[in-house]
């Protein structure tokens, strides 16, 4: 665990050293703040104390935010050759994968923590469903974990950050959009299966304040699958070399 923590801190600091963290956090807060408070569908438009406008925009913002964060994690290491140097030390492939996963999750966690003033401000305006708010944040964290897993896999199979970003988006589009669209046009078992594979189905359920173990397991399964594939990619690279 100590090795994982050391790698995660190293990666976390690198986000701020390269200005990546500052740019992504400012962009995230700017977009989420605009659509929460100023757009035509903001909280003043719906006329109730609710963070749903924020969750709706954060849902999409994190879809782009997370691949931009993960695209450099392993792709840059592959390009510069530092991945070989890292793996020759007394660390395993899983130490590297989990360390980078934790670093990405910490940065997203900080971005979400910085939105708590939205919650406090809306709470001051009127009665708010606190359970729905915290479930919404839980849904964003679980969804981000899934995107990080996918992003790490995409970054592990290429040395080009742009390719890693686009590949992560491409995979994410299936879970976020395509499965949902196909499910709405199909009935029976296939329709139910595609609906279950859609991230939006599970996120919408949690954001309404209902924490179902099936939704949590789904997000964790996508996360674990992405991490397993990323570790397999690194292992295969080590065998070849």
Structure, explained:
- It is a single chain.
- 83% of the residues lie in helices and 0% in strands.
- By secondary structure, it is mainly α.
- It has one domain.
- Helix 12 crosses helix 13.
- The radius of gyration is 19 Å and the shape is globular.
- It starts with a helix and ends with a helix.
- The relative contact order is 0.13.
Question: What is the gist of this entry?
Answer:
The model has no long low-confidence stretch (mean pLDDT 84). It is built from 13 helices and no strands. It has 241 residues and is an all-alpha fold.
Q: What keywords describe this structure?
A:
globular; 13 helices; mainly alpha; 241 residues
Question: Quick one: overall form?
Answer: globular
Overall mean pLDDT score?
Answer: 84
Instruction: Note poorly predicted spans.
Output: none
How many β-strand runs?
Answer: 0
- Coarse structural class: mainly alpha
């Amino acid at each position: 665990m100590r090795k994982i923590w050391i790698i995660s801190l190293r990666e976390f600091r690198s986000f701020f050293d390269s200005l990546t963290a500052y740019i992504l956090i400012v962009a995230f807060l700017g977009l989420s703040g605009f659509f929460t408070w100023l757009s035509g569908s903001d909280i003043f438009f719906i006329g109730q104390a609710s963070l749903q406008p924020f969750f709706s925009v954060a849902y999409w913002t994190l879809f782009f935010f997370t691949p931009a964060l993960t695209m450099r994690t392993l792709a840059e290491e592959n390009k510069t050759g530092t991945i070989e140097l890292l793996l020759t030390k007394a660390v395993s492939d899983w130490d590297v994968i989990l360390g980078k996963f934790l670093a990405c999750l910490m940065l997203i966690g900080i971005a979400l923590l910085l939105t708590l003033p939205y919650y406090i401000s809306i709470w001051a305006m009127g009665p708010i469903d606190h359970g729905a708010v915290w479930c919404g944040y839980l849904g964003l964290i679980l969804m981000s974990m899934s995107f990080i897993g996918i992003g790490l896999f995409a970054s592990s199979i290429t040395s080009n950050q742009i390719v890693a970003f686009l590949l992560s988006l491409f995979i994410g589009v299936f879970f976020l959009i395509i499965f949902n669209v196909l499910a709405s046009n199909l009935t029976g078992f296939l329709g139910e299966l595609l609906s279950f594979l859609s991230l939006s189905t599970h996120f919408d359920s949690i954001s309404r304040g209902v924490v179902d173990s099936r939704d949590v397991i789904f997000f964790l399964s996508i996360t674990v699958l992405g991490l397993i594939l990323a570790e397999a990619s690194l292992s295969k690279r080590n065998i070849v070399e």
